[in-house]
Each structure stands twice: as structure tokens, then as C-alpha cells.
Amino acid sequence: MSPATDPAADRQVIHIHPAAPVKPAFGTPCNGCGVCCLSAPCPVGMLVSRRRSGACSALVWEADDSLYRCGMVRDPLSQLGWRDAPRGWSAWLGRRMRRWIAAGEGCDADVSVERPG
Fold first, then answer.
1. Is a pLDDT exceeding 60 seen at residue 38?
2. Residue 35 belongs to a domain
3. What's 85's DSSP letter?
4. Integer Cα distance of 41 and 37 in angstroms
5. Residues in Cβ contact with 40 at an 8 Å cutoff, skipping those fewer than 6 apart
6. Which part of the chain is the 4Fe-4S ferredoxin-type domain (predicted)?
7. Could you report the per-residue pLDDT of 71-98, keeping only the tens digit for each?
8. Of 26, 99, 32, which is closest to residue 59 (Cα–Cα)?
9. Predicted structure pTM score
């Protein structure tokens, strides 16, 4: 079977925290499952992660809430290593990141997820 016709050629293994919520349907509200960012970084994530494939390095697991969040929305200055930046910059940049990545606009990971077992 050639790679073009092999269904396994389109598969990718991503490691999701066992307590993460199940991926919602495409277009429905985000629930913090992390599938989108674990499978590939968004354009902002590409800049922060310095990669075009694989998991985004800005993705943060929040154990208290059992979900993933974008570190560039939650704490962008920490993600960028800007520890000495003025305090207001974090909130300002976080709002810009939320808009740029369309956080809260709905699930944009048009992929199917199979959990092992």
C-alpha cells in the first residue's frame, strides 16, 4: 500500500493528560482538552515554540481544573521570558493573544481522537 492510500500515514500520536476532558465536536465550545495544541502549534505557538509541528510549548496543564490552557493567554510574559516587563503588559498581551488565537470561539481541531484501550 502506498503512503497516499495508507490510512495510517495520516495518524499522529499525541500524549494527552489522562484527566483531560474528551475533545468536543468541531465548532462547539472549547473545553480545554488540548488536542489542538498538542497536535500542532497555532501561528502564535509556532513563534513561541519555534516549531511548525508537534506539541506547542506554550500549552499549560492546569491540574486544579483538569484542563489545558494556552500559556500565551494565561501568562504571556512568563512564556516569553520577559520577567522584568511592566505588570500591565501581561494582561494587555494576554488579551491580544486570546483574540489572535480565537480562544473561546469554538473547537477548531478538525481531527478524530482515539484513546488507547
1. yes
2. yes
3. S
4. 5
5. 52, 53, 54, 56
6. 18-52
7. 999 999 988 888 888 878 989 999 999 9
8. 32
9. 0.81
Full 3-state SS string of 18-49: CCCCCCCCCCCCCCCCCHHHHHCCCHHHHHHH
Sequence-ordered alpha helix ranges (H) in the chain: 35-39, 43-49, 71-74, 76-80, 87-100
Q: Is 24 within the bounds of a domain?
A: yes
- Domain count of the fold of the chain: 1
A 10 A CB-CB count for 107 gives 18
**Could you tell me the CA-to-CA distances from 3 to 6, 9, 40, 90, 109 in Å, in that order?**
5, 6, 21, 45, 23
Domain membership of residue 79 as a residue range = 16-100
CA 42 to CA 31: how far, in whole Å?
A: 17
Residue 5 in domain? no
Report the alpha-carbon distance of residue 6 to residue 40 in Å, rounded. 21
d(CA 22, CA 14): 14
Largest CA distance in the chain: 57
- Average pLDDT for the chain: 87
